[in-house]
């Protein structure tokens, strides 16, 4: 497996829920397999996501290819619009 999506099942933010759902929907529509990592199960996973992304205040969704940071929702959305999702995910 390569692509990892850090997300949360516990959030009061509609924006975060919507962004996570859109990332998952687009990855599934492109038949890109990904692993979901739920940061709500423990602070260690949230800290891991923030450390790996290089952003101490990062919020889900955050996308990685293995341990290589790809970007956040805004960066993913720009790649979708430019039809460069595979490059964004570092798959090519």
Describe the structure.
The structure is a single chain. With 92 residues, the chain is of the alpha+beta class. It has a domain at 1-63: Glutaredoxin, CATH 3.40.30. The chain is 43% helix and 21% strand. It is built from 4 helices and 4 strands, in the order βαβαββαα. A 4-stranded mixed sheet has the order 2-1-3-4, with helices on both faces. The radius of gyration is 12 Å and the shape is globular.
List the helices and strands and how they pair.
Blueprint: E1 3-7, H1 14-29, E2 34-38, H2 43-53, E3 62-65, E4 68-72, H3 73-81, H4 85-88
Parallel strand pairs: 1-2
Antiparallel strand pairs: 1-3, 3-4
H and E string: EHEHEEHH
CATH fold type of the domain at 1-63: Glutaredoxin
Would you tell me the overall average pLDDT? 96
C-alpha Rg (nearest Å)? 12 Å
CATH secondary-structure class of the domain at 1-63: Alpha Beta
Spell out the CATH superfamily of the domain at 1-63: Glutaredoxin
Instruction: Determine the fraction of residues in helical runs and give it as a percent range.
Output: 40-55%
Question: How would you characterize the largest beta sheet?
Answer: 4 strands, mixed
Strand content: 15-25%
Given helix and strand content, the structural type is: alpha+beta
Low-confidence segments, given as residue ranges, are: none
Choose one word for the global shape. globular
In spatial order, strands of the major sheet run 2-1-3-4
Terminal Cα span: 15 Å
Which architecture name of the domain at 1-63 does CATH use?
Answer: 3-Layer(aba) Sandwich
What's the helix count? 4
- Give me the count of strands: 4
């Amino acid at each position: 497996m390569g692509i990892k999506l850090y997300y949360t099942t516990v959030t009061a933010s509609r924006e975060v829920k919507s962004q996570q759902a859109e990332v998952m929907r687009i990855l599934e529509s492109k038949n890109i397999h990904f692993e979901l990592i739920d940061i709500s199960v423990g602070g260690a996973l949230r800290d891991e996501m923030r450390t790996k992304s290089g952003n101490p205040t990062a919020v889900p969704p955050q996308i990685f290819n293995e341990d290589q940071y790809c970007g956040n929702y805004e960066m993913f959305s720009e790649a979708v619009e430019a039809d460069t999702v595979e490059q964004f995910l570092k798959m090519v």
